[in-house]
Amino acid sequence: MADRYCKVCHEPIEGSPAYCTSCGAALGNRSGDSAESVQDGPVKSHRAVKIAIGVIAVIALACGGAFYCAYDSGMLASTGAGWSKSSDSAKKSSDSSYKATSESAEKRKSGTANDADDTDRKVTYDFDSESSEVEFVYHNNEKDTDLDESWTYVQFSSSQKKQDSALTQLNKTIKDNFERELQDAKEWDADSSSGPQCISHRESVTYIKDEYAVVRTERYLTTWGAHGDIEVTGTAYDLANGEDISMSRITGQTLTEMESAAREAIEQYLEKNPSDIYNSSQLDDAINEIVNDDSRYYVTKDGLLISTKPMELGSFQYGGKDIVVSSIDGSKAQKGTDLHTKYSETK
Fold first, then answer.
1. Which residues pair with residue 244 across a beta bridge?
2. How many Å apart are CA 109 and CA 159, to the nearest integer?
């Protein structure tokens, strides 16, 4: 049986210890029933600290939960000056994001965005004329003949910031062909060459719409005799893929339809402007040869035209012709009209 009981924790006390072995309370020194016990100062203080820490932990947990909920819901910005910096920082971050988005939108509107935006806009095409000054000297037994000529060729460009590789290759091909022809002309020799010398090569863009373009090339060929020969050819390009295409693709007609329309156009011209040396039979043969040569066709804003050389429909003085074959894009030029003086590079 216990000698006494602790008044603090009510645990049984055996023997006569100065302190309760269960709670550490100081025990009285009297015998008999449980003595009046007084808690020792340090022990009491220790227990009070434990209790205070527990209360603070509970309060902290409660406040932390409230803080997190307020922050997560966006309400913290207005809860006090202590959080104004965080609120301002969040606002600045949001403003910066909005500004970047706005600038991107403005770049797209003004066309100053990066090259990837090129695919969102319609590509347009343009061209430039490049020239090369050439001096030709012809020697014969009687005299030397000097000629200064300006040769020209065309180069295309697009609205894309990054030039398309197909268009770059097309420009290179046009330039290479031009330089090869120029070199052949410079190396021409009257004693060893079988054909005439080309002393003039001039290219001009007569039509450009969407991705299609047409180039008219006029050459002056001579054997240094009394008269030279003027040759006109037309070449059509698809600038989107850098390829040569048929003229019929631009006109929307078959080659057979173009030939038939060209024959009618030449005949209409001859009705109003009869040949000065050829009869009807001779003209029929000449017309067949002209319209069957698809290199003679080219497109302009005045429509589809076909070229004839001097001496084909008449004398040298009768001259070469550029006759309107059919309308293109609602052009108003009348079929059978000669537009040689308008498009000729040899004045």
1. 237
2. 15
